[in-house]
Write a structure and sequence with these properties.
Layout: E1 4-8, H1 15-28, E2 34-38, H2 50-62, E3 65-69, H3 73-81, E4 86-87, H4 112-129, H5 134-155, E5 158-163, E6 168-179, E7 193-207, E8 210-213, E9 218-227, E10 233-235, E11 240-242, E12 251-253, E13 257-259, E14 264-274, E15 287-288, E16 296-299, E17 311-314, H6 317-332, H7 336-343, E18 347-349, E19 355-365, E20 374-389, H8 390-403, E21 409-423, E22 431-444, H9 448-455, H10 460-470, E23 478-482, E24 496-500, H11 501-505
Parallel strand pairs: 1-2, 2-3, 3-4, 5-24
Antiparallel strand pairs: 5-23, 6-22, 7-20, 8-17, 9-14, 9-16, 10-13, 11-12, 11-15, 12-14, 18-20, 19-20, 21-22
Helix pairs in contact: 1-2, 4-5
Amino acid sequence: MMKTEKIQLQPFDNIDSILDKLNQTYQATYGLTQIQILWPRRGKLLDDPLDFGRISGWAERNHVKLVFVSSNEQIMRKAAEHNIPVYPEVDSIPAAGTNRKDRFPMKRSESVRAIRIAKLKSEREQLKEKKVPVSSELPLFLVAMVAVVFLFFLIVPHAVISIRPVETKREIILPLWTSDTLDAMTLNGGVPSELMRFTVEKTVTVPASGTIQSAGTLSTGTLRLTNVCDQRQLIPSGTHFSASADQPWLFHNLTDIVLPAKTETTIPIEADKPGASFNLPAQSIHAIEVPYDRCIQIMQDQPTSGGSDGIFITPTQADYEAAVEKIRREILSMPEEEVQEKAGNLRIPLMQTLKIGNLISEKSDPLIGYAGKTLTLTQTVEVEVRTISRQLIIQQIRMNLEAGPQNAFIPINDSIQFSVSEKTDSGNEDQYQLEVRASQSGLQVVDYSELRELISGKTIQDAKKTIKEHINLESEPSIKIWPKGLPRLPFVSSNILIEDQQWEEF
């Protein structure tokens, strides 16, 4: 009699794990003659054609017949090249002893279970044909019926369980370092960096604190002149005006004036000397020099202004240095986002390495020694900062993740997320210390063979409870049993199919 075992492959299996499963199954089953390998519906297994030759060679060495269960055309083609029969379903595999010349089944072939049931029926008919006492017929019949019922409930029931495990994550904290001279990755977390240069323009304004002495400025204003005589009056430029005729003259007109009889006009005036004392209030000037005082009346409606004694506020060297220091502080405290924009998406700037380089250009308004209540300084400077390749950091993260335990985690491609923080108290002036916090998304690996053994023969509710105890799920598992209405899952674990929707999408 042929002794058969089944092996359910998973999407993450490779040639090494498949051969390992074959060896374990062979060693655990005495008198094994056939192994049925059930391929998953999803996943790319054994891309190398030589892998099928290794499997075929193992079967020949151990005198075990291999049968593939798959509807994948690529698998069927490669199996045919190595004389390995392929069937779309387990039920379509012919029973032991049948003579099938073709390795590829018909669409509807007789199942092993049907053959076994037919054999039982044949044995029952043979028992009927034998002439036995009536007293012994009933026990034999009951035994046969019990056997049929037992085999029915043992072989026929099937169950399909659909689950969706929760996406899991693994996290690490990774110390890294770099230096000005490091040019290659190291096993102790060293990552090379590059010096990046860019220009920054900054403008600051500071109050002026100095004073300067000069000749001063002239006060100016306006006068309203009225000709009270019947004759036209000509008043030349430089004619003087004052508070009264007996006081020193203070102001003079700037242009010649022709004033018709009985008319008035407004003229500009300027102080004879610079100084703040010439800034007079309105109605301070009343007199005009002889001979114009006879016909001309004076009226000062507005005060004079603009006169100064020659002392002005001006920026000093200290004010300039304060402006330079203010620009320096603003550059060294630039937001990381602004520096990151300069570095681009492929590199990460190390803010602790930010330095101010050469001065490109400068503009000061006003210059030192010139009048001004504030100093406005604009500088364009070169800025230096070291940057690290984002890809190199990801490589370091992958190296450390792959060095950890892999038994229960299959990573999803391009799922690494990380953040970088700098340590300022590294204790080594030649190195820049970093701390990388990284996480990677992946899928949980479940031993479905063990799980099927745990839930076989259980009620639907108990099976769901057991599944949720072993797997973290997004939603309630779906369980369908055939024939419908059976209260328990099949007692034969191989008749339970578990569909992992996460793996299928992956």
